[in-house]
Amino acid sequence: CPTETDHKDKKVKVKVDKQEVEIRQTMTVASLAEAMNKDFDHVIEALLNTSLDMDSLEPDSVLEERWIKEVVKRSGMKFSWAKLSDSRERPNRDVHRRPAADPSSLALRPPVVTIMGHVDHGKTTLLDSLRKSQIVSTEAGGITQHIGAFLVQLPTGEKITFLDTPGHAAFSSMRARGANATDIVILVVAADDGVMNQTVESIQHARTANVPIIVAVNKCDKPQADPQRVKRELLAYDVVCEEFGGDVQAIHVSALKGDNLMALAEATVTLAEILELKAEPSGLVEGIIIESRTDKGKGPVTTAIVQRGLLKRGSVLVAGKSWAKVRYLLDENGRALTEAGPSAAVEVVGWKELPSAGEIILEVESEQRAREVVEWRTYEEEQQKLQEEQSVIELKQKQHLEEYKKEREGLTHLSWRQRKSALYRANKGKFSVRPSEKMQRDEHNLPLIIKGDMDGSVEAILNILDTYDAQQQCQMDVVHFGIGDVSENDVNMAQMFTGSIYGFNVGASKPIQQLAARCGVPLRLHTIIYKLIDELKDELSSKLPPHVSENVIGEATVLAMFDVSVGKKKVPVAGCRIQKGQLDRRLKFRLIRGRDVLWEGSLAALKHHKDDVQVVKVGMECGLSVDGDVAFNPGDVIVCYEEVDTPQVTSWNPGF
Ligand SMILES: Nc1nc2c(ncn2[C@@H]2O[C@H](COP(=O)(O)OP(=O)(O)OP(=O)(O)O)[C@@H](O)[C@H]2O)c(=O)[nH]1
Prior knowledge:
Blueprint lengths: L3 H13 L3 E4 L3 E2 H7 L4 H7 L15 E2 L1 H10 L3 E4 L25 E2 L3 E6 L5 H15 L11 E5 L5 E5 L4 H9 L7 E7 L6 H12 L4 E6 L8 H9 L14 E3 L8 H15 L2 E2 L6 E10 L3 E10 L2 E2 L3 E4 L2 E9 L5 E2 L1 E2 L4 E7 L8 E5 L2 H42 L7 H16 L13 E8 L2 H11 L9 E9 L4 H10 L2 E5 L5 H10 L3 E4 L2 H14 L4 E20 L2 E16 L3 E6 L2 E6 L1 E6 L2 E2 L2 E3 L3 E6 L10 E10 L10
Parallel strand pairs: 1-4, 6-8, 6-9, 9-10, 10-11, 22-23, 22-24, 24-25
Antiparallel strand pairs: 2-3, 5-12, 7-8, 13-14, 13-21, 14-20, 15-19, 16-17, 16-21, 17-18, 17-20, 26-27, 26-34, 27-32, 27-33, 28-29, 28-34, 30-31, 30-33
Helix pairs in contact: 2-3, 13-14
């Protein structure tokens, strides 16, 4: 009779039992036991009285799907399929721009200006003059360096940030990344040249980016300068200057002489005021990288334009797949800054790796968070790469697979899963071979061990291998596959089977690499599936005997035949004329009469007049005798040829 305690125990037991078991397509006995919260013996017991060979079952024996289901069923439990890869479920840990700030927290910021225009119209000269105007006005007067941007401060205190990479290439490459750093475009048009191709292109670039234009009519110091013409020509492109009733300011300048540059700067400030450029002056930073380089002393350095928030020393930033704890902030004069607000261009030192120009900078709360973001972005990129690769492969394979299927129609074609378990069945016998009874190296056999970083990638590779249809040339067997870095076990197994290990997106530690080298096990690691398959194709091809082909060197016709006494023997000699190429005594020969080949072999002697020679050339006559019993006839053809080995290539075509 059950006591109360018994009853309690029973209850507890029911709780501990897993009612639903997460299963995979293949599991080891041990992993199934673990998933069921049972021990090894339980699984063995559940498999009693099945067709499985109980004696061969070990904890690491692999069970096929149907046996896994059987065990679960016989244990009175239900099963559910485990997610293919936990990593696919990874939560998104990225960081993004914050939502727009409350208008009350915004403050005016200086404009960021890009100079564009036709080649030779004076963009570089204008930038240089603007920069110089600053050096004179600040007593520092030091060496300015190119950091990708510089600040111009008007006597009235207003500031303008000029991006100093002229031309629209930089502008459009930034925009292509969806990163527009520019508020105003100064369009430089030479007054002696007028509107040209790239002037029009620049206008179009500014338009598509929705950035207003100020026209700098340059080279006005030149006698042939005609600023009015420039403004008239611009009308055709809907750039309507103020004097034609439009709202585009046009300033006549001489970049070379420095004339009227202040007027240009003032016009820029005026436009900026109209645009009411504002940003949040404090809080977490958002910005954009306009240049990046590696400095010998400072390491990776970028120039950033701050777009929001206050950049400080010690801020933790993320850009692309890199992060920084800001060590130094420097301006274009190399002066250290403690902070930089919106529209400032600063050199940022402290990056772990070099991010690229055009990348968005976002400040995060901690180094831990920065690492997390970079890790996520790296992971996501890998996933994308894998996916792209897979879709390329799938696309290329589709057609090939269709043909392949058609060919195999009527034949029993195994599904991938069946093939997988069939492989295991086929290998079962092989696994029982003791390492001491190593398999003989078979030239026409390639045993494979496939390792991948996740089920998806291993599946993709196995699917490709499944199309292998050149078994008659070289037997290819997958003897093992799995997820994770290449292990000692993999190397041992490869050695036992004299096979090769192919790894996709996995590593192999130094000791494993050394072990593989010692055991003579080829270890081939790849990060691109089709490169892996290419190498596999090469390895398969290397196992095939070369194709022997013939290269005809020369041809002669037999004119007459006579016997020559060599000692007591009479040797038949053919007197020939070389019709094509040459005869080379060291190569192979063939005697042809009509359509028949009468003899093939080597020459015993080749003479020109009385002399033994190696080679006789076209037009010459010669006497030759052969190794063997041959009766020459006038009119016979003698062909001289060489045999050339060409490596054979596997006929397997995985579709790409
Ligand atoms: N007379 C005169 N010459 C100028 C002026 N501005 C530029 N130049 C000259 O025009 C030529 C081209 O000037 P750059 O500043 O190199 O022109 P750019 O537009 O930067 O040319 P790219 O970089 O090749 O696109 C140089 O020889 C300059 O000295 C100017 O205001 N007056």
